[in-house]
Write a structure and sequence with these properties.
43% strand; alpha+beta; 18% helix; 192 residues; two-stranded antiparallel ribbon; single chain; 11 strands
């Protein structure tokens, strides 16, 4: 009898150990789901170049490429030159857009939605006046190109300088023509 008890106990113990081992294997499955990959749009981007495209034939601004330091923005009642333009897109779908100008910088922040080839910025302060709807032209690990519809009052074949801008914007009777095209912002990713 003692022999049978020993074998029964040993068999029962083996079965129990087998079940525990199987339970351990099943419970140790791949519970650690891989973290979601970070979208390549996330990061700090410096504006490198600006290009005006798709304007009607005969307007000198067509395919005009220039540095962001040639841009001017309105801050209050003043038109000031841009020194640097930076866009930071965070993983939590928030953004900060900083335009460095002489005097206090212009800062715009809020949330963003990036889907397919659309980037929509929703500013916390809607009165800031920044562009908010972009088409993503190109996106990779180091470059981001965003475009948006752009219209300007100008003259055919006009040399585009500060005087022409002021003249055509302030004097509608100057016979300037309102033309539409696209402006493309070319950003480079900031090194971490």
């Amino acid at each position: 009898m003692k022999m049978i008890d020993y074998f029964e106990k040993a068999t029962t113990a083996k079965i129990l150990i087998g079940w525990l081992f199987m339970l351990l294997l099943v419970s140790c499955g791949d519970d650690d789901s891989d973290p979601e990959p970070v979208s390549p749009i996330v990061g700090e981007w410096d504006l490198d170049l600006v290009e005006d495209k798709d304007f009607p034939v005969g307007f000198i601004r067509n395919n005009d490429v220039f540095s962001p330091t040639q841009l001017q923005i309105q801050v209050g009642d003043l038109i000031v030159p841009v020194e640097e333009w930076r866009l930071e897109l965070a993983e939590d779908d928030t953004y900060v857009e900083t335009v460095e100008v002489p005097g206090p910088n212009s800062v715009n922040s809020g949330t963003y939605v990036y889907e397919s080839d659309d980037l929509e910025l929703t500013p916390d302060d809607v009165d800031v006046g920044f562009i908010t709807d972009f088409t993503v032209e190109e996106l990779n690990e180091t470059e981001l190109s965003l475009s948006f519809p752009f219209e300007i009052r100008t003259f055919p074949d006009a040399i585009w300088d500060t005087l022409t801008v002021q003249w055509t914007q302030e004097f509608e009777e100057a016979n300037a023509v309102l033309v539409q095209g696209r402006r493309v912002f070319f950003y480079e990713k900031r090194d971490d």
